[in-house]
Amino acid sequence: MRRAAKVLAEQGIVRQPIVVQNRTGASWMNAANFVLGKAGDPQVILTIAQPILTTPITTGQPTVYDKLTPIAMFVQGDLVVAVQPSSPVSDLAGLVELAKKRERSVKVAGAQAGSTDHMVVGLIEKAGGVKLNYIPFDGGGTATAAFLGGNVDVITLTPSELLPLMKSGKAKPVAILSDSRRPEADFKDVKTAREQGLDVLWGQSWGLAGPPNMDPALVKFWQDAIAKLVQSPAWQASLTENYQRSAFDPTSDQKAELKRLHDEHLALLRELGQAKM
Predict the structure, then answer these.
(1) Can you give the pTM of this predicted structure?
(2) How far is Cα 221 from Cα 79, in angstroms, rounded to an integer?
(3) Would you place residue 194 in the very low, low, confident or very high pLDDT band (cuts 50, 70, 90)?
(4) Can you tell me the distance from the alpha carbon of 232 to that of 125, in angstroms, rounded to the nearest whole number?
(5) Are 8 and 232 in contact, with CB atoms under 8 Å apart?
(6) Phi/psi at 178 (nearest 5 deg)?
(7) Which of 41, 79, 87, 101 gives the lowest tally of CB atoms within 10 Å of its CB?
(8) Is 277 domain-assigned?
(9) Which of 196, 222, 240 is the last residue of a domain?
(10) Sheet holding 107-110, edge to edge
(11) ∠ CA 105-153-146, rounded to 5°
């Protein structure tokens, strides 16, 4: 969102200064509760990410996504499953076959229980009919350190996170969890999970929402601004650099889209036994 704010300002799409504030803690709930307490405030908007949906699900708190005023989900990111460079497997199908030999023998690092990493494990288990050994760590950095230390066999990262490990020979990609391969030279040979006969499709998405009772005219202002942003060459260059996508239909029902995302995460977290709602 700092990149979005920078392009919005530099391109003159939004002429008022945009200040990005960190309100950390409670897996995004501190930020969400701050905005929820600013009903009708025209000066405040909130970055939407998966924890806005998943934290209430995994903690049993009331949902927050449906109390905010949705503006736009407009950034999408891919996920890549990678194994140790010394692993005998070269693709996700081979990893599943390896896991079938002994239940929970394949160790997978993740940020925490109920995280994106955990949900990916659940999808692979369901698609492949296997049981993996998911090991939650205290954050993504710690999980990556455990993988680099050879303490786990598998990790899920974004393309931009994984690329330096690939180039230094510290990780080997086995599948991208999108509906098509990425076009870049470094990733064009990484098959999708579906190409390998495994119905695993998962990614990340980000967007914006306003406080409750946001003026509809202001919602339209921000939607128009985002529509211009996603067409901007500067924004497109930023997406290419960070291996992201930016699909946004300003006429779509953003409220329905957030509900769809919530229900999708709720169903998966229930299957993993992580839902408290």
Answers:
(1) 0.94
(2) 32
(3) very high
(4) 40
(5) no
(6) -105, 175
(7) 101
(8) no
(9) 196
(10) 133-136, 107-110, 154-157, 80-83, 172-176
(11) 120
